[in-house]
């Protein structure tokens, strides 16, 4: 049994993929939720303020989906719907 259980949690890191890049997320759950919330709020404000961008909203939702099951279900359902819509468009062409 070559696995050391004391070092097991330190090897697990949360990662998200955004714009063909993989980004590491903070290991602390509270920090991930704070980061995701800040990005989502900044994305909503990005519709009004030019410095912030609407790109922050999907990134914030992706970060929040790591820890919040309701957001994770929303992201999964959206991906399935988007895949079905894209599949229908390519099937028609």
Structural features, described:
By secondary structure, the protein is mainly α. It has one domain (24-92). The protein has four helices and two strands; from the N terminus they run αββααα. A hairpin with a 2-residue loop joins strand 1 (15-18) and strand 2. Helix 2 (29-45) packs antiparallel against helix 3 (56-64). It starts with 7 loop residues before the first helix and ends with a helix.
Radius of gyration: 17 Å
Oligomer: single chain
What strand line-up does the widest sheet have? 1-2
Task: Please bin the fraction of helical residues.
Answer: 55-70%
User: What is the global morphology?
Assistant: globular
Number of strands: 2
Descriptors for this entry?
93 residues, mainly alpha, two-stranded antiparallel ribbon, 4 helices, globular
Topology:
Elements: H1 8-11, E1 15-18, E2 21-24, H2 29-45, H3 56-64, H4 69-92
Helix pairs in contact: 2-3
Summed up:
With 93 residues, the protein is mainly alpha-helical. It has helices at 8-11, 29-45, 56-64, 69-92; strands spanning 15-18, 21-24.
């Amino acid at each position: 049994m070559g696995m050391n259980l004391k070092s097991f949690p330190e090897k697990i890191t949360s990662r998200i993929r955004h714009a063909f890049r993989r980004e590491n997320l903070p290991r602390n759950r509270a920090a991930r939720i704070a980061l995701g919330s800040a990005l989502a709020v900044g994305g909503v404000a990005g519709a009004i303020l030019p410095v912030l961008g609407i790109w922050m909203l999907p990134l914030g939702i992706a970060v929040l989906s790591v820890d919040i099951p309701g957001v994770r279900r929303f992201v999964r359902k959206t991906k399935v719907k988007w895949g079905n819509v894209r599949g229908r468009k390519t099937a028609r062409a």
